[in-house]
């Protein structure tokens, strides 16, 4: 544990049975009675998504449906998630979560909103002050057991005898048996008691908390004593605690990494990982991951609490299971409009409240393929207009590009859509946005007439091009969306994705398709930025590997796909001239995605300026790739080589479809490499032959996610 690590004091605060508490606040007469919140679908009483502790005491669990809960506990109140536009409306829960965040912020601590009902706080500065103040006085009198009424210390007394545990801990402190870190954790616990009391006083909500030296430990500690309790995990007790703690419950080890540790190394607890030498972990994973794991198993996690009280993205999605699956352009268009209407409304509210504008719209589509379901995500640059029809049309155009059969009106499409998600992100500060980048994105028509109607150039490919540059983000989005369904505690609400619970059976007639709406007239004149004609000729990289590489290395070239004669969104630069400094005051901080939205001549200018800057102070860091002669930073070259390797492998994949599923089938019936977060699985043959090569590629993908 580094000195720095010792000094951090971090907490995770998690609301207890949050949705039920929100409902109880609306219905105070029901407080103290067993209750659940069920998803709006009515089949068997709806899927339970939150259970209060009174109902849990009577055997009700989240895995049950409303009817089963009633069988177990006849008095159980079932609150139903409100609906709007035919889908769950989480506004009241989101707003409740925001109230809690506001209270936390008033304590001068660094707050990172982690989901709709939980937040990490870094209290180091405040605690340091408490600690130094206490040193100035008589420490023995500083910590009173009454200041820790709901606190437990891991390793001190059993959970049913709180006072003894706390007293034992305080006694050890006063006898000098504890170190500075123990003192600071104790002050952290006092502060969290105050924060939780304030949250209750101001919002009426109860919460639990974990206090430790980092996020991973705080999260673990939080789950130990609930509801309305807090737990300190002193660093000195971590190893003992880990000796029985299942690794799959640890943050970041619930997924593939945890699975590899369980299956290949037979690890079931965190302590089991401690037995594996660092070198072995590095060899199996990669050097960075191996070292990280080595320390993680010892309770060290350096991930910082980043000050973020607003969601990173705003979105919603809807599942269309069984008979409700969307099988026509008209149904898809209808639901895209519904989803975009909600996102647009929330974005407007967000802009008003938070003075920021989203720059990227991400569409997620899941389809029932011929062989198995598959999904893809695409991102579309957003202008400052959050016009719902325009957003929906842009999404539909993207879907038409992916699946041409969707372009046909009144025709049953062969591969049905089972989930649609729309999410906006890449927020920029509005003031900054207006003064710099946004002034560029004036549509031709607006520039001429001042009206909102835009003219479009040809070449839908250009929208695709931008999509690919942003694929990393869209991958992340998909992961978040998908995880919301399966591992909600890890991801829920991070992006404020308004999500349906997916506990419904596959064929749920209650969730039948809506009345098929009248065909929506699709305005093809979409006003979204795209690359101009000049851009189209400059690069020829395409596909999954190319786009992933572009994100990491400087995207001097755009991935270009063939373009069609379809009308496309177009953006033209206004006549106003901008200096590079005005657009990007700090050349060290150029956002390559934003850059990619600019006209090509400006992109070149900015990149040349960056190069020139590098030349002045970083010449020795540049190397030339012997394959493509591109100039790269020294630290980029290895990954860049991986890109070439990956491209070669991609070619192999495309001529040699693998039984392992690295390829999927698109709606045209062609074999394609999947672009979603479900990364191409490894071609087993190649892996057997070239273990070393495949490991490099693995680490390449690992680094991207
Ligand atoms: P959780 O914090 O996982 O659960 P909880 O707050 O209901 O209960 P606990 O006291 O055990 O923390 O989830 C927070 C809210 O997120 C929950 O109240 C409802 C919602 N949610 C879903 O919508 N779907 C889900 O599958 C889960 C797990 C939660």
Automatic annotation (TrEMBL):
Entry annotated with the keyword Signal:
no
Which EC main class describes this enzyme?
transferase
Task: Kindly give the PANTHER family that the UniProt entry links to this protein.
Answer: DNA POLYMERASE ETA
Annotated catalysed reactions: DNA(n) + a 2'-deoxyribonucleoside 5'-triphosphate = DNA(n+1) + diphosphate
Point to the regions of Basic and acidic residues compositional bias: 687-696
Q: What's the family?
A: Belongs to the DNA polymerase type-Y family.
Known cofactor(s): Mn(2+); Mg(2+)
Pfam families on file: IMS, IMS_C, POLH-Rev1_HhH, zf_UBZ
Q: Gene Ontology cellular component?
A: nucleus; replication fork; site of double-strand break
Residues of the region (Disordered) are 496-520, 657-705
Q: Which domain of life is it from?
A: Eukaryota
Enzyme Commission number(s) of this protein: 2.7.7.7
Keywords assigned by UniProt, alphabetized: DNA damage, DNA repair, Magnesium, Metal-binding, Nucleotidyltransferase, Nucleus, Transferase, Ubl conjugation, Zinc, Zinc-finger
Q: Does the keyword Cell membrane apply?
A: no
The source organism is Daphnia galeata
Share an example GO biological-process annotation for this protein.
Answer: DNA repair
Q: Where is the composition biased (Polar residues)?
A: 657-667
Q: Which residues form the UmuC domain?
A: 10-254
Subcellular localization(s) per the UniProt record: Nucleus
- Protein name per Swiss-Prot or TrEMBL: DNA polymerase eta
Segments forming domain UBZ3-type: 618-652
